[in-house]
Design brief:
alpha/beta, Rossmann fold, eight-stranded mixed β-sheet, 10 helices, globular, binds S-adenosylmethionine, RNA_methyltr_RlmE, Putative tRNA (cytidine(32)/guanosine(34)-2'-O)-methyltransferase, tRNA (guanosine(34)-2'-O)-methyltransferase activity, rRNA-MeTfrase_E
Length: 269
Amino acid sequence: MGKTSKDKRDIFYRLAKEQGWRARSAFKLLQADETFHLLDGLHRAVDLCAAPGSWSQVLAKHMYEPLSEEDKKKVKIIAVDMQGMAPIEGVTQMREDISKESTAEAIINFFEGEKAQIVVCDGAPDSTGMHDFDSYVQIELVITAISIATYILEEGGSFVSKIYRCDKTSKAYTQMKRFFKDVCVFKPSASRNSSIEAFVIGRQFCLPEGHKLCNLTLEWQNDPSTWIEEFTGYPPAVTVPFVGYKGEWDSDRTYGMTIMCTMRLCRNH
Ligand SMILES: C[S@@+](CC[C@H](N)C(=O)[O-])C[C@H]1O[C@@H](n2cnc3c(N)ncnc32)[C@H](O)[C@@H]1O
C-alpha cells in the first residue's frame, strides 16, 4: 500500500529513509534494545514476520556487522515471512507462513541442534478494517510465535513480539508468564500513542517443570486460560508491567524540516 502524505511527514519515516532502514519499525526494536539491552553479545536470532526486513537489519547491524570474518561464521540469523524481501548480509531468509507446522520445523532444523538466544516477531495481518477480527488474528500470530519460541529458545533467552492491546491480549500474557520469568509490555515512542500496538517482552525463558513439547498447534496441556475462556467467553484477565520509552522524537507529532535540522545542529555542537 502506498504511503500517505501523513506517513511521509512522520518523523520516524523520515529518519528511517535518512539512516537506510527499510521501515520505520526499525526504531521500535532499536528502542527496545536501548531500554532492555536485548541484543548484547548474541549470535543466534529468529526474526518472525520479517518483511520488508528492518528488524533483520537491526539484528544484522548488532550481531553480524561488527564482527571479524571468522566470528561472522558463528552467527545464525533467520528471517521468516510469507512475503519475499531483498537480501541482507548475515541473514538467511525463509519465505513461509509461520503458522504452518512445517515452517516451525524448518526453523528448528536451521539451528542444527543449537538454540536461538532471541526470537522477535513483528507480525501483523493485513488490516481488514474490522478491529476485532484483526486483533484476533494478531494475537493468534503472537501465540504462534511463543509456541515456536518454546522449541527453539535456549534457557534464559528473550522474546519480543508486537501485540495488539485488546480483549484477547490476556491470552498471550498468560502464555508469556508460563514461559518467561520476566514479562512486560513496552511502548516505544516510535509506536504512535493512538495505536493499539505495543510490544510484549519476555526475558529469562524457562520451560515449566513437566512441560512436554507435544505439538506446534499451541493447545498446551493444562493451559488455565482455555477452560476459563470456555465458560466466560473471555480469557482470564492477566496484567503485566508497562514500560514506556520517552525519546527525543514523538511519532504523534509532525515536525517541520527546520526543527529537525535545528535539533541535529544543536546535538552536534
Ligand atoms: C509489520 S510487517 C513486519 C515489518 C518488519 N518487522 C520490518 O521491520 O520490516 C508484518 C509482516 O507480517 C507478515 N506476516 C503476517 N502473517 C504472517 C504469517 N502467518 N507468516 C509469516 N509472515 C506473516 C506479513 O507478511 C508482513 O510482512
